[in-house]
What we know:
Layout: H1 3-13, E1 24-25, E2 30-32, E3 40-42, E4 55-60, H2 62-72, E5 77-82, E6 88-91, E7 94-100, E8 108-114, E9 117-121, E10 143-148, H3 160-173, E11 179-182, H4 188-198, E12 205-207, H5 209-220, E13 228-230, E14 243-246, H6 248-252, E15 263-267, H7 274-279, E16 284-286, H8 294-304, E17 308-314, H9 316-325, E18 329-332, H10 336-341
Parallel strand pairs: 2-3, 3-4, 4-5, 9-10, 10-17, 11-14, 11-15, 12-13, 12-14, 15-16, 17-18
Antiparallel strand pairs: 1-2, 6-7, 7-8, 8-9
Helix pairs in contact: 3-4
One zinc ion is lined by residues 47, 49-50, 124, 313, 343.
Amino acid sequence: MNRHSVVRVKLLAMPEPFLTRDLRIAPNGIYIDPPQPQVRAIITHGHADHARSGHGAVLATPDTIAIMKARYGEDAAGRWDELPFGEKRTIDGVTISLHPAGHILGSAQVLLEHKGQRIVVTGDYKRLDDRTAQPFELVKCDLLVTEATFGLPVFQHPNPADEIARLLRSVAAYPGRAHVIGCYALGKAQRVILLLREGGYDAPIYLHGAMIRLCDLYEQRGIALGDLRPSLDVPKAELAGQIVIAPPTAIKNRWSRRLPDPVLAVASGWMSVKQRARQSGVELPLVISDHADWNELRQTIRETEAETIWVTHGREDALVYWSQQQGLAAEPLRIEAYDDAGEEGE
Ligand SMILES: [Zn+2]
Ligand SMILES: [Zn+2]
């Protein structure tokens, strides 16, 4: 087959996108997850590297708006505009709808439709089962803007239930010790708690103070997490044999000394990098990720049937190369703010 003719057909099939490479919707000037305050923004989810305060107007799912208000305050945006999953809103000729991304509560992919062209911006996403987030929905499109946090073949996440089973075996084996699990406060903490419940653990789970507000919010929004108690003021001896959820930073500092002989655990996709776990002094690394792994990323690219792939937010190059090998037009987006802000909820 003549290779040039194939390339030519693809170029003709894809008109110039109406989304710019800094994720600005050209016909209406609305940005998606902008790092700087903008007049109008669509926010995919509540993590700090996507949701900033100070925008004139924010369009997002009701859960994401509730999360942003809880974290940044009611006046963190000039105007809040709720768009429930699946509903359409047309602004200056561009039809916008939000579809579940499966990453954390309320997390959305953004579908943009304009003059017959369909663009999907995934935000952060995963496809594994997670009852604390609305399940990922596949959306077909012409241009897919995908995240790539774990965009290398080495990242193949294990079954989270197996990781939790390992944790519960350790809890049973060391009744005199507290197990403290480092988790990001938004999303990961609630997911780990629910995984523990699904694993049959119905004892009280103790929370570092930084976890309480967002666990309350999840409960208010219909995600039951069982018996949760603040760890503050609980006598040290009473925490022997118990599970405590704390921010990743807290498990390494003086805070954890208030726990009896703590087993330090961290729940993160990065825990598959053994060196990283060792360096941070983690005794019990739990590979529990809220992002798509290498297989899910490739599966999603295939299933959306997009012919143009923009890769951002992580390790872009391997996924760009793989996409090109599949005959797709692919390029990395280098959106600076994502890199230096650091990622929440890995
Ligand atoms: Zn995120
Ligand atoms: Zn992110």
